[in-house]
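Dear colleague,

Following up on yesterday's call, I've attached the two folding results inline so they're easy to grep. Please treat them as preliminary; we haven't cross-checked anything against experimental data yet. The first protein's sequence and structure tokens come first.
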Amino acid sequence: MNDLPKQFESFTEARRNGFLAAKKIKDDGKKMVGVFCCFTPTELILAAGAVPVGVCGVSEEPIKDAEKVLPRNLCPLIKSSYGHVITDTCPYFYFSDLLVGETTCDGKKKMYEELSKIKPMHIMQLPNRATGKNEFNLWKDEVILLKEVLEKELGVTITEEDIKAAIKDKNEERALLNEYFELAKLEPSALTSLELYQVSYQAQFKFNRDELKASLRKIIDDTKDRYERGECPVKKDAPRILITGSPIGGCVNKIVKTLEDSGASVVAYELCSSIRSNRELIDEENPDVYEAIAKRYLNIGCACMMNNQKRIDLLDELIDEYKVDGVIDIALQSCHPFNVESHKIKEFVTGQKNIDYMAIETDYSETDTEQLRTRFEAFIEMIEDKR
């Protein structure tokens, strides 16, 4: 096929489908913008008539190629992302017309320098803390600058009416995702741990906006019907776990599946692709669309921020709302912000919320799966013994 890398035929079905979906977008005359983080205001990309898509790597496969340029003792997400780029194995990067990154961590910032040699790249300068007038003004200026860059790079004009329509569209999506997440508040949860994770993660790869929202509505209604029929897939007494920390897209099976196998029910993911980035909507009544966007995105409680009280506040709410029995805090290897912040999270969870806590540092390999299984089983048993 035209405009596909030479190794296309050897890809797995999922990756082949990804390439074909991305290619169809380009064949239909649309632009695609690759994003790396939930701090990117995707409303502006939608307002530009383009398709935003996540390009963070979630596979161990290309890491060995990335290590020819990047150091081995670097976050696996960064190495996987870069490795997919230089091996032409990420369909969404391959077809992206522009990449947008943010200054969230030093590893990503240096990777962006290498990526800019391959694709047009715009970096949003994220402030080091989320509080303060100067910090907010800096971020609002960055939001406006992104709008101007999108106009220039994509050859479009973005009006405030376009932005308002995109804000409404994304708010509708987030509201549906939040309604889906809240099905796990039921006792027992109406969702398996994997169901809860996969829907929020895979939503970013459904490119037709109306079809995405319709599919979310259907899965919510279908899940409610299943629950009301008494066909709950979760054991009534399964310990209720909240997962927080680094993105886990590259290690979902060995963490989430192994936790389920150990008898747990994950009822909340305080992660970039889940509650952390979807809980708060943008104020549609604010006449200043750039201020509204800036306020909402600066409220994301990421460990890259100094004095990250927003993450603590969110965990405080979630532990109560979802009746959490234990918190598992996951940090990818060499992810210094989340690794350092784990001490603060532990003090809060065990000291103020008085529930059990476990910290894990891992990578994208499967080598520690059985070690994790042993730790998970002991953690679940400890929770059950306290009942």
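Below is the second protein, in the same order (sequence, then structure):
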Amino acid sequence: MIRFQQNARPRTDTPTHLFAIGQTVRMKSRIGLVQKTAELFQIKSKLPVKDGSPQYRIRSDEETYERVTTEDNLEVADNPSA
């Protein structure tokens, strides 16, 4: 038998997306690894949370395909025109 708790509050611990569609970001560099390129990516769409981290579909002008990554792999591009 399933019982529901009365007066239960909705969960509010679901992470929210930090980046906006159209925002320019770059991939974070990993400690001890040289970043292949300092490519800039544009957020194309927001995807559902996976393992506690919001996901995004991103695209670089240098590539012919889109990538899917989690928010913890991205950082704001300080100078998008560079």
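For the second protein, one point worth flagging: The radius of gyration is 17 Å.

Best wishes,
A.L.
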